[in-house]
Amino acid sequence: MNEEIAIPVEEVDALYEQLDREAEAAGYHLNPDREFTWELVKGLLVNEQRYGYWACPCRLATGDKQKDLDIICPCDYRDPDLLDWGSCYCALYVSDEVVQGEREVQPIPERRPPEGQRPQDRPARATALPGKEPALPVWRCRVCGYLCARERPPAVCPICKAKRERFERFW
């Protein structure tokens, strides 16, 4: 039987405001539907009480932080989901198009691989060894030099806020 975890309203409000400031400062947006978003933020706090970390409120966490690394908010799938669908899986984070009313939030397919095929399930390896290709492409912001290893460059540079088109393949 699941017992209800009580989270004080003030705590949810404080985290909501913190996440909103951090998202905007990093070039992201929280879902503009305040009530919906508030409930997701509350879910993060409930999961923090249950597991000790902010597991995505829309996914089933195992309670084993190592196994859940990819779904700790912001999850590993946020950026690709924002690029392809305009929101992350739970719709906590949304794209510019959603904020501007040019795109609606919609259900999106689960991008998380099945257990046993997740990045944390594979043996650790260096991203690049001399004479070897890195595991993921490395992107460089041409404005500030920020580097990131991912399938595609971010929508906005977290350092200087340059748009995706200002990134180049570095490696």
Write a concise keyword list for the protein shown above.
single chain; 171 residues; alpha+beta; Ferredoxin Thioredoxin Reductase; Rubrerythrin, domain 2; 2 domains; three-stranded antiparallel sheet; two-stranded antiparallel sheet; 4 helices; 5 strands; globular
Distance between the termini: 51 Å
Give the percentage of residues in beta strands.
Answer: 5-15%
- What letter string, H or E per element, gives the SSE order? HEHHEHEEE
CATH architecture of the largest domain: Alpha-Beta Complex
CATH superfamily of the largest domain: Ferredoxin thioredoxin reductase catalytic beta subunit
What's the CATH class of the largest domain, please?
Alpha Beta
Uncertain segments are none
Could you name the CATH topology of the largest domain? Ferredoxin Thioredoxin Reductase
Count of DSSP-assigned helices: 4
Q: Note the overall shape.
A: globular
Explain this structure to me?
This protein is α+β, with helices and mostly antiparallel strands and 171 residues long. It folds into two domains: 113 residues, Ferredoxin Thioredoxin Reductase (Alpha-Beta Complex); 49 residues, Rubrerythrin, domain 2 (Single Sheet), CATH 2.20.28. The chain has four helices and five strands. Helix 1 packs across helix 2. The longest helix is centred in the first third of the chain and has 18 residues. The relative contact order is 0.12.
